[in-house]
Task: structure prediction
Amino acid sequence: EKLREGRIFFTVVAQSDDIDTEGALAEILAQCHEKLGKRVPKAGLLFSTIDLEHDQVLDGILNAWPNLELIGCTTAGEMSSALGYREDSVALVLFGSDSIEFASGIGRDVSKNIPSACRAAVESAAAKSDLPTAICITLPESMTTSAQQIVDSLRKELGSNVPVVGGTAGDGYRMVATRQFCGREVCSDSVPVLLLSGPLVYSVAVESGWEPVGEPGLVTRSEGTVLHEIDGRPALEFYRRFLGETANPSPDCPLAMLDENGKVECLRATLGTIDADTGAITYLAEIPEGKMVRITVADRGNILDGCRASIKKAFAGYPHGKKPDAALFFSCASRRDLLGTRTKEEFGIIGSVIGNEVPVCGFYGYGEIGPRDRSDEASRFHNETFVSLIIGT
Result:
Protein backbone atom coordinates (compact mmCIF):
# COMPACT_ATOMS: atom_id res chain seq x y z
CA GLU A 1 0.00 0.00 0.00
CA LYS A 2 1.31 3.43 -0.94
CA LEU A 3 0.22 6.61 0.84
CA ARG A 4 1.05 9.69 -1.21
CA GLU A 5 -0.61 13.05 -0.73
CA GLY A 6 -3.47 11.29 1.02
CA ARG A 7 -4.08 8.86 -1.84
CA ILE A 8 -4.09 5.13 -1.26
CA PHE A 9 -3.70 2.55 -4.00
CA PHE A 10 -3.09 -1.13 -3.33
CA THR A 11 -2.79 -4.23 -5.48
CA VAL A 12 -2.66 -7.88 -4.46
CA VAL A 13 -2.06 -10.86 -6.72
CA ALA A 14 -2.88 -14.54 -6.28
CA GLN A 15 -2.32 -17.58 -8.47
CA SER A 16 -2.96 -21.32 -8.29
CA ASP A 17 -2.10 -24.19 -10.61
CA ASP A 18 -4.37 -26.66 -8.80
CA ILE A 19 -6.29 -28.59 -11.48
CA ASP A 20 -9.30 -28.94 -9.18
CA THR A 21 -11.68 -25.96 -9.24
CA GLU A 22 -12.43 -26.04 -5.50
CA GLY A 23 -8.75 -26.32 -4.66
CA ALA A 24 -7.74 -23.52 -7.02
CA LEU A 25 -10.48 -21.22 -5.70
CA ALA A 26 -9.58 -21.91 -2.07
CA GLU A 27 -5.92 -21.22 -2.80
CA ILE A 28 -6.39 -17.87 -4.55
CA LEU A 29 -8.90 -16.69 -1.92
CA ALA A 30 -6.52 -17.62 0.90
CA GLN A 31 -3.64 -15.77 -0.77
CA CYS A 32 -5.78 -12.68 -1.28
CA HIS A 33 -7.16 -12.62 2.26
CA GLU A 34 -3.67 -12.96 3.71
CA LYS A 35 -2.32 -10.08 1.62
CA LEU A 36 -5.36 -7.84 2.02
CA GLY A 37 -5.81 -8.05 5.75
CA LYS A 38 -8.78 -5.82 6.55
CA ARG A 39 -8.61 -3.89 3.30
CA VAL A 40 -11.50 -4.28 0.86
CA PRO A 41 -10.70 -4.36 -2.88
CA LYS A 42 -12.78 -2.45 -5.40
CA ALA A 43 -11.98 -4.29 -8.64
CA GLY A 44 -10.34 -7.39 -10.04
CA LEU A 45 -9.05 -9.11 -13.16
CA LEU A 46 -9.26 -12.90 -13.49
CA PHE A 47 -7.12 -14.84 -15.97
CA SER A 48 -7.95 -18.53 -16.10
CA THR A 49 -7.22 -21.78 -17.87
CA ILE A 50 -10.15 -22.98 -19.97
CA ASP A 51 -10.42 -26.18 -17.90
CA LEU A 52 -11.87 -24.83 -14.62
CA GLU A 53 -15.54 -24.43 -13.66
CA HIS A 54 -15.53 -20.68 -14.18
CA ASP A 55 -18.96 -19.95 -12.71
CA GLN A 56 -17.83 -21.58 -9.47
CA VAL A 57 -14.66 -19.48 -9.38
CA LEU A 58 -16.57 -16.24 -10.05
CA ASP A 59 -19.18 -17.05 -7.39
CA GLY A 60 -16.44 -17.72 -4.84
CA ILE A 61 -14.71 -14.42 -5.55
CA LEU A 62 -17.93 -12.38 -5.52
CA ASN A 63 -19.14 -14.09 -2.36
CA ALA A 64 -15.93 -12.91 -0.69
CA TRP A 65 -16.21 -9.34 -2.06
CA PRO A 66 -19.83 -8.78 -3.23
CA ASN A 67 -19.23 -5.25 -4.60
CA LEU A 68 -16.15 -6.14 -6.63
CA GLU A 69 -16.01 -4.79 -10.19
CA LEU A 70 -14.66 -7.97 -11.79
CA ILE A 71 -13.85 -8.91 -15.39
CA GLY A 72 -11.66 -11.61 -16.89
CA CYS A 73 -11.14 -14.20 -19.59
CA THR A 74 -9.73 -17.61 -20.41
CA THR A 75 -6.15 -17.68 -21.65
CA ALA A 76 -3.30 -19.62 -23.22
CA GLY A 77 -1.02 -19.23 -20.18
CA GLU A 78 -0.80 -17.03 -17.10
CA MET A 79 1.91 -15.13 -15.21
CA SER A 80 2.00 -13.34 -11.89
CA SER A 81 4.27 -12.30 -9.05
CA ALA A 82 2.54 -14.94 -6.93
CA LEU A 83 3.64 -17.99 -8.91
CA GLY A 84 5.51 -16.87 -12.03
CA TYR A 85 4.68 -18.26 -15.48
CA ARG A 86 2.32 -21.21 -15.62
CA GLU A 87 0.08 -22.97 -18.08
CA ASP A 88 -3.33 -24.22 -16.95
CA SER A 89 -3.51 -22.03 -13.86
CA VAL A 90 -5.76 -19.26 -12.56
CA ALA A 91 -4.50 -15.80 -11.59
CA LEU A 92 -6.41 -13.02 -9.82
CA VAL A 93 -5.31 -9.41 -9.35
CA LEU A 94 -7.29 -7.17 -6.99
CA PHE A 95 -7.17 -3.37 -6.86
CA GLY A 96 -8.22 -0.96 -4.15
CA SER A 97 -8.01 2.82 -3.84
CA ASP A 98 -9.59 5.76 -2.09
CA SER A 99 -9.15 7.99 -5.14
CA ILE A 100 -9.39 5.74 -8.22
CA GLU A 101 -12.81 4.55 -9.35
CA PHE A 102 -13.28 1.23 -11.14
CA ALA A 103 -16.31 0.29 -13.25
CA SER A 104 -16.97 -2.91 -15.16
CA GLY A 105 -19.29 -3.55 -18.08
CA ILE A 106 -19.84 -6.05 -20.87
CA GLY A 107 -21.22 -6.13 -24.40
CA ARG A 108 -22.64 -9.41 -25.72
CA ASP A 109 -22.97 -10.99 -29.17
CA VAL A 110 -20.09 -8.91 -30.47
CA SER A 111 -19.77 -10.93 -33.68
CA LYS A 112 -23.32 -9.89 -34.65
CA ASN A 113 -22.84 -6.16 -34.08
CA ILE A 114 -19.46 -4.85 -32.96
CA PRO A 115 -20.42 -1.16 -32.46
CA SER A 116 -23.53 -2.09 -30.48
CA ALA A 117 -21.69 -4.52 -28.19
CA CYS A 118 -18.89 -2.03 -27.51
CA ARG A 119 -21.40 0.75 -26.84
CA ALA A 120 -23.24 -1.47 -24.36
CA ALA A 121 -20.01 -2.37 -22.57
CA VAL A 122 -18.83 1.23 -22.22
CA GLU A 123 -22.23 2.68 -21.31
CA SER A 124 -22.93 0.06 -18.63
CA ALA A 125 -19.54 0.73 -17.03
CA ALA A 126 -19.49 4.53 -17.44
CA ALA A 127 -22.89 4.80 -15.74
CA LYS A 128 -21.22 3.73 -12.48
CA SER A 129 -18.82 6.70 -12.32
CA ASP A 130 -19.10 10.48 -12.62
CA LEU A 131 -15.38 10.89 -13.32
CA PRO A 132 -13.89 10.96 -16.83
CA THR A 133 -12.31 7.67 -17.84
CA ALA A 134 -8.51 7.62 -17.62
CA ILE A 135 -7.91 4.19 -19.17
CA CYS A 136 -9.89 1.19 -20.41
CA ILE A 137 -8.78 -2.41 -19.88
CA THR A 138 -10.54 -4.90 -22.15
CA LEU A 139 -10.33 -8.70 -22.55
CA PRO A 140 -12.55 -9.48 -25.55
CA GLU A 141 -13.26 -12.36 -27.88
CA SER A 142 -11.34 -12.41 -31.15
CA MET A 143 -11.93 -15.83 -32.72
CA THR A 144 -15.47 -15.04 -33.86
CA THR A 145 -14.99 -11.43 -34.88
CA SER A 146 -12.59 -8.58 -35.65
CA ALA A 147 -10.55 -7.47 -32.65
CA GLN A 148 -9.30 -4.41 -34.55
CA GLN A 149 -12.90 -3.30 -35.11
CA ILE A 150 -13.59 -3.88 -31.41
CA VAL A 151 -10.68 -1.57 -30.52
CA ASP A 152 -11.85 1.03 -33.03
CA SER A 153 -15.41 0.92 -31.65
CA LEU A 154 -14.24 1.21 -28.04
CA ARG A 155 -12.12 4.21 -28.97
CA LYS A 156 -15.13 5.82 -30.65
CA GLU A 157 -17.22 5.35 -27.50
CA LEU A 158 -14.50 6.44 -25.07
CA GLY A 159 -12.84 9.22 -27.07
CA SER A 160 -9.47 9.10 -28.78
CA ASN A 161 -7.66 10.40 -25.69
CA VAL A 162 -8.53 7.30 -23.62
CA PRO A 163 -6.06 4.44 -24.17
CA VAL A 164 -7.54 0.97 -24.64
CA VAL A 165 -5.21 -1.72 -23.29
CA GLY A 166 -5.52 -5.47 -22.83
CA GLY A 167 -5.51 -8.79 -24.62
CA THR A 168 -7.96 -11.08 -26.35
CA ALA A 169 -9.11 -14.29 -24.70
CA GLY A 170 -7.55 -17.68 -25.42
CA ASP A 171 -8.49 -21.31 -24.88
CA GLY A 172 -5.16 -23.03 -24.32
CA TYR A 173 -4.42 -23.24 -28.05
CA ARG A 174 -7.40 -25.51 -28.71
CA MET A 175 -8.83 -22.86 -31.07
CA VAL A 176 -12.39 -23.96 -30.30
CA ALA A 177 -14.02 -21.33 -28.07
CA THR A 178 -12.94 -18.79 -25.46
CA ARG A 179 -14.76 -17.39 -22.44
CA GLN A 180 -15.06 -13.89 -21.01
CA PHE A 181 -16.18 -12.91 -17.49
CA CYS A 182 -18.04 -9.97 -16.00
CA GLY A 183 -19.26 -10.19 -12.42
CA ARG A 184 -20.70 -13.67 -11.94
CA GLU A 185 -21.41 -14.12 -15.64
CA VAL A 186 -19.48 -16.47 -17.93
CA CYS A 187 -19.86 -15.39 -21.56
CA SER A 188 -18.56 -16.11 -25.02
CA ASP A 189 -18.54 -13.76 -28.02
CA SER A 190 -18.40 -10.74 -25.72
CA VAL A 191 -16.45 -7.59 -24.81
CA PRO A 192 -15.80 -7.03 -21.08
CA VAL A 193 -14.28 -3.71 -20.03
CA LEU A 194 -12.90 -2.24 -16.81
CA LEU A 195 -12.80 1.56 -16.78
CA LEU A 196 -10.37 3.31 -14.42
CA SER A 197 -11.11 6.93 -13.48
CA GLY A 198 -9.51 9.51 -11.22
CA PRO A 199 -5.91 10.66 -10.58
CA LEU A 200 -4.35 7.65 -12.26
CA VAL A 201 -0.73 7.61 -13.39
CA TYR A 202 0.14 5.10 -16.08
CA SER A 203 2.61 4.20 -18.78
CA VAL A 204 2.11 1.75 -21.64
CA ALA A 205 4.40 0.30 -24.29
CA VAL A 206 4.18 -2.23 -27.11
CA GLU A 207 7.19 -4.05 -28.58
CA SER A 208 7.68 -7.37 -30.36
CA GLY A 209 11.32 -8.13 -31.18
CA TRP A 210 10.55 -8.88 -34.83
CA GLU A 211 12.71 -6.93 -37.28
CA PRO A 212 11.65 -5.91 -40.81
CA VAL A 213 13.56 -7.39 -43.75
CA GLY A 214 13.50 -6.58 -47.44
CA GLU A 215 11.84 -3.62 -49.08
CA PRO A 216 8.36 -2.36 -48.16
CA GLY A 217 5.41 -3.07 -50.42
CA LEU A 218 2.02 -1.46 -50.98
CA VAL A 219 -1.17 -3.42 -50.29
CA THR A 220 -3.06 -3.06 -53.56
CA ARG A 221 -5.89 -5.55 -52.97
CA SER A 222 -7.30 -6.98 -49.75
CA GLU A 223 -10.63 -8.05 -48.30
CA GLY A 224 -10.70 -7.90 -44.52
CA THR A 225 -8.22 -10.49 -43.27
CA VAL A 226 -7.46 -11.86 -46.75
CA LEU A 227 -4.47 -10.20 -48.40
CA HIS A 228 -4.64 -10.72 -52.15
CA GLU A 229 -2.00 -8.47 -53.70
CA ILE A 230 1.06 -6.43 -52.77
CA ASP A 231 2.45 -4.09 -55.42
CA GLY A 232 -0.12 -5.50 -57.85
CA ARG A 233 1.23 -9.05 -57.53
CA PRO A 234 0.01 -12.06 -55.49
CA ALA A 235 0.83 -11.64 -51.79
CA LEU A 236 2.65 -14.97 -51.70
CA GLU A 237 5.14 -13.67 -54.26
CA PHE A 238 6.07 -10.86 -51.86
CA TYR A 239 7.16 -13.41 -49.25
CA ARG A 240 9.08 -15.50 -51.73
CA ARG A 241 10.83 -12.47 -53.17
CA PHE A 242 12.66 -11.96 -49.85
CA LEU A 243 12.55 -15.36 -48.13
CA GLY A 244 13.09 -17.76 -51.03
CA GLU A 245 11.16 -19.42 -53.83
CA THR A 246 9.72 -22.18 -51.62
CA ALA A 247 8.97 -19.99 -48.56
CA ASN A 248 5.45 -19.89 -47.17
CA PRO A 249 4.07 -17.38 -44.66
CA SER A 250 4.02 -18.66 -41.08
CA PRO A 251 3.60 -17.38 -37.50
CA ASP A 252 7.35 -16.80 -37.17
CA CYS A 253 7.36 -14.27 -40.06
CA PRO A 254 4.49 -11.85 -39.39
CA LEU A 255 3.76 -8.92 -41.66
CA ALA A 256 4.44 -5.44 -40.29
CA MET A 257 2.03 -2.63 -41.13
CA LEU A 258 3.91 0.66 -41.41
CA ASP A 259 2.87 4.19 -40.49
CA GLU A 260 3.38 7.24 -42.68
CA ASN A 261 6.99 7.52 -41.43
CA GLY A 262 7.82 3.93 -42.31
CA LYS A 263 7.88 2.77 -38.69
CA VAL A 264 6.18 -0.44 -37.56
CA GLU A 265 2.62 0.32 -36.47
CA CYS A 266 1.58 -3.23 -35.62
CA LEU A 267 2.14 -6.84 -36.67
CA ARG A 268 -0.27 -9.12 -38.48
CA ALA A 269 0.22 -12.86 -38.02
CA THR A 270 -0.93 -15.73 -40.19
CA LEU A 271 -1.36 -19.38 -39.31
CA GLY A 272 -0.05 -20.16 -42.80
CA THR A 273 -3.40 -20.20 -44.58
CA ILE A 274 -2.78 -19.58 -48.29
CA ASP A 275 -4.69 -19.99 -51.52
CA ALA A 276 -2.32 -21.95 -53.74
CA ASP A 277 -4.18 -20.89 -56.87
CA THR A 278 -4.23 -17.12 -56.28
CA GLY A 279 -1.38 -16.57 -53.83
CA ALA A 280 -3.72 -14.92 -51.31
CA ILE A 281 -2.82 -15.13 -47.60
CA THR A 282 -5.29 -15.09 -44.69
CA TYR A 283 -4.24 -13.23 -41.53
CA LEU A 284 -5.63 -13.01 -37.99
CA ALA A 285 -6.72 -9.40 -38.44
CA GLU A 286 -7.42 -6.90 -41.20
CA ILE A 287 -4.76 -5.49 -43.51
CA PRO A 288 -6.36 -2.54 -45.31
CA GLU A 289 -5.63 -1.52 -48.88
CA GLY A 290 -3.19 1.37 -49.20
CA LYS A 291 -1.02 0.22 -46.28
CA MET A 292 2.71 -0.15 -46.65
CA VAL A 293 3.94 -3.49 -45.27
CA ARG A 294 7.19 -5.36 -44.66
CA ILE A 295 8.06 -8.93 -43.78
CA THR A 296 9.59 -9.43 -40.33
CA VAL A 297 11.79 -12.13 -38.82
CA ALA A 298 13.00 -13.01 -35.31
CA ASP A 299 14.67 -15.76 -33.32
CA ARG A 300 14.06 -16.60 -29.67
CA GLY A 301 16.63 -14.07 -28.53
CA ASN A 302 14.95 -11.32 -30.55
CA ILE A 303 11.54 -12.24 -29.11
CA LEU A 304 12.88 -11.96 -25.56
CA ASP A 305 14.58 -8.69 -26.47
CA GLY A 306 11.15 -7.41 -27.53
CA CYS A 307 9.73 -8.26 -24.10
CA ARG A 308 12.61 -6.42 -22.42
CA ALA A 309 12.19 -3.39 -24.71
CA SER A 310 8.46 -3.19 -23.94
CA ILE A 311 8.96 -3.25 -20.18
CA LYS A 312 11.88 -0.82 -20.28
CA LYS A 313 9.95 1.64 -22.43
CA ALA A 314 6.92 1.49 -20.14
CA PHE A 315 9.06 1.82 -17.03
CA ALA A 316 11.00 4.74 -18.53
CA GLY A 317 7.72 6.45 -19.41
CA TYR A 318 6.41 6.25 -15.84
CA PRO A 319 6.79 9.54 -13.92
CA HIS A 320 10.32 9.89 -12.58
CA GLY A 321 10.63 9.32 -8.86
CA LYS A 322 7.28 7.55 -8.49
CA LYS A 323 7.05 3.86 -7.70
CA PRO A 324 4.36 1.92 -9.62
CA ASP A 325 1.57 0.23 -7.71
CA ALA A 326 0.89 -2.50 -10.28
CA ALA A 327 2.09 -3.87 -13.61
CA LEU A 328 -0.05 -5.75 -16.13
CA PHE A 329 1.32 -7.63 -19.12
CA PHE A 330 -0.35 -9.08 -22.20
CA SER A 331 1.69 -11.40 -24.41
CA CYS A 332 0.83 -13.47 -27.47
CA ALA A 333 0.19 -17.21 -27.52
CA SER A 334 2.36 -17.36 -30.65
CA ARG A 335 5.27 -15.92 -28.66
CA ARG A 336 4.73 -18.65 -26.08
CA ASP A 337 4.67 -21.27 -28.83
CA LEU A 338 7.81 -19.96 -30.55
CA LEU A 339 9.72 -19.50 -27.27
CA GLY A 340 8.89 -23.01 -26.10
CA THR A 341 10.88 -23.90 -22.99
CA ARG A 342 12.19 -20.32 -22.82
CA THR A 343 8.71 -18.80 -22.29
CA LYS A 344 9.32 -18.46 -18.56
CA GLU A 345 12.19 -16.09 -19.38
CA GLU A 346 9.65 -13.43 -20.39
CA PHE A 347 8.38 -13.35 -16.82
CA GLY A 348 11.94 -13.34 -15.49
CA ILE A 349 12.70 -10.24 -17.56
CA ILE A 350 9.84 -8.38 -15.86
CA GLY A 351 11.44 -8.64 -12.43
CA SER A 352 14.87 -7.77 -13.76
CA VAL A 353 13.54 -4.46 -15.11
CA ILE A 354 10.97 -3.26 -12.55
CA GLY A 355 12.11 -5.15 -9.46
CA ASN A 356 10.32 -7.70 -7.32
CA GLU A 357 8.27 -5.36 -5.14
CA VAL A 358 5.68 -4.34 -7.75
CA PRO A 359 2.68 -6.71 -7.98
CA VAL A 360 2.58 -8.24 -11.46
CA CYS A 361 -0.10 -10.14 -13.38
CA GLY A 362 -0.78 -10.99 -17.01
CA PHE A 363 -1.60 -13.67 -19.55
CA TYR A 364 -0.96 -15.10 -23.01
CA GLY A 365 -3.86 -14.60 -25.40
CA TYR A 366 -4.76 -14.56 -29.09
CA GLY A 367 -3.91 -10.90 -29.62
CA GLU A 368 -2.78 -7.80 -27.74
CA ILE A 369 -4.27 -4.32 -27.47
CA GLY A 370 -2.64 -0.99 -26.79
CA PRO A 371 -1.00 2.16 -28.16
CA ARG A 372 2.67 1.89 -29.08
CA ASP A 373 3.54 4.16 -26.14
CA ARG A 374 2.12 6.97 -24.00
CA SER A 375 2.58 9.53 -26.80
CA ASP A 376 0.55 7.44 -29.28
CA GLU A 377 -3.19 8.13 -29.11
CA ALA A 378 -4.18 5.25 -31.38
CA SER A 379 -4.70 1.97 -29.54
CA ARG A 380 -4.46 -0.94 -31.97
CA PHE A 381 -4.90 -4.67 -32.14
CA HIS A 382 -1.54 -6.44 -32.36
CA ASN A 383 -0.27 -9.93 -33.06
CA GLU A 384 2.87 -11.48 -31.57
CA THR A 385 3.67 -8.49 -29.35
CA PHE A 386 4.27 -7.84 -25.65
CA VAL A 387 2.16 -5.09 -24.08
CA SER A 388 3.29 -3.55 -20.77
CA LEU A 389 0.97 -1.41 -18.62
CA ILE A 390 2.31 0.19 -15.42
CA ILE A 391 -0.17 2.00 -13.17
CA GLY A 392 -0.36 3.89 -9.90
CA THR A 393 -1.48 7.21 -8.41
User: Anything to note?
Assistant: The longest strand covers residues 211-223. Residues 40 and 68 are 9 Å apart (CA to CA). The helical segments are 21-36, 54-64, 114-126, 147-158, 235-243, 300-317, 333-339, 344-354.
